[in-house]
Fold NADP-dependent glyceraldehyde-3-phosphate dehydrogenase.
Amino acid sequence: MAGTGTFKEIIEGDVYKFYADGHWRLSSSGNISYVYNPTVAGKQAYKITACSKDEVNQAFQSAKAAQKIWAKTPLYKRAEMLHKVAEIMRKNKGPIAECLVKEVAKPAKDSVTEVVRSADLLSYTAEGIRILSEGKFLFSDSFPGNPRNKLCLASKAPLGVILAIPPFNYPVNLTCSKIGPALIAGNAVVVKPPTQGSVSTLHMMHCFHLAGFPKGLLSCVPIKASELGDYVTTHPLVNCISFTGGCDTGMSISKKAGMVPLQMELGGKDAMIVLEDGDIELAATNIIKGGFSFSGQRCTAVKVVLVMESVADKLVSSVNAKVAKLKVGPPENNCDIVPVVTEASANFIEGLVTDAKAKNAKLCQAKFSRQEWKRQGNLIWPLLIDNVTTDMRIAWEEPFGPVIPVMRIKTPEEGVKHCNSSKYGLQGCVFTSDINKAMLLSDAMESGTIQINSAPARGPDHFPFQGIRESGVGSQGVTNSINLMTKIKTTVLNLPTASYTMGTNKLPFSSLLSFLLSLVLGSGRRRVFADGEKRTSVW
Ligand SMILES: NC(=O)c1ccc[n+]([C@@H]2O[C@H](COP(=O)([O-])OP(=O)(O)OC[C@H]3O[C@@H](n4cnc5c(N)ncnc54)[C@H](O)[C@@H]3O)[C@@H](O)[C@H]2O)c1
């Protein structure tokens, strides 16, 4: 059970602690943040301590110190540690999943899946040592005017301290997808958890604690973002920000961040284009799975359907039939449609529906099976909105709820134009049985990823995943995240003469040997330099 047994150390009374310097403690500020249960209006699920400025600063200082030691930890040992955390997470998936159900209303089964998937991600990331153990070796003579007398060794070095800011919808998975690559690459991490989702994140962090990482290397500092958000994101010890969340927050952080690498995974308006030759049943199934699961609160949810007029009726009626079978209710019962995360989100979604209705869109479920479209608290019944036009907000905005607009198009180009006019460019998908059309459309759609004959999806977690325009900066996926969280360090070996592998040059052994000798002799000694002269080394 959450906060007990293995996890009893992370709570005092009914208040969850923060994690820094290898310890769990309450903030000296005495400040508390409240996490609400989305399923029961106004009901508090958890209380968490909120860190002060000094405590956040201390976490960054400790991270900086610990990173220096961690960077000297052999790659294989770093990998062993990540495998160990993954094992602990798998063993303790129950309590972590329990928190996801309570604080973000994720269906119980999906909550367990999120924890297991995150453990798998960490195990996979541990194998990132294969990427990190390889570097590059360059010869100088491919650039005009250079003989082969310079040898360049390039390798990946850690950046330092990574600030990880995950969103509420996948707090465990999207924290692991930042921590794993950061640690394997030799970095330290400070996590700022989302308020809804913080308790799952704290439980997950305890698994890292139990695995025995060096003190200070990892910390998790819940804060009130409105008060300390800027302090955290502009802290001078931050060497990289890996953020997942909404466009407005991400863009505001990007503008304020200093000269540090950014990994920004922001919102999306993922378009599905359905052509006349597409498998309509398959498209309908993917709208249900890809658009309504977790009540549409996924960055890669289908967020607008652009269907060719001639097959639109068939698609809409197939989706409507499937919508009627969706189970609406609490996450504990594994319902398909669960309450959205906050009342503010529910109000926002309702606003999009009201606007579309006022502009004569058709609310399919208001008519279908005589069921009025409805909302009770944060619970919003699934809704397909047909005949959506470009003057409606829902044609452009991200609902992050179980509401999907359908726009009827006359040509595929019309669909591409709508997709490319969006401020977002995360994912998209195309349904067609013609591979040539699929490729042409994929190339024409300006989004980070286009899926052919399947709904947008983030996984598998090692695939590259990125957004363009306001959907983000940088690319993720295990390999890309490792690369983003490292910098290239080069050492150039300057030889006294050009040397070609198995070349037929006359070998100037004496000078080459003396040069090599100079490399192996210790600092401060009288050394023979490449030019044959004896000098005292400066280091
Ligand atoms: N592209 C992706 O990979 C991806 C994945 C999941 C979710 N998302 C997007 O995330 C959004 C939903 O998540 P959300 O509601 O948690 O987003 P959000 O932008 O409200 O919050 C994201 C995170 O930023 C923090 N935050 C807010 N203000 C801050 C500030 N001033 N300084 C520092 N941190 C601050 C929040 O506490 C949270 O941890 C959607 O737009 C969704 O599309 C994107």
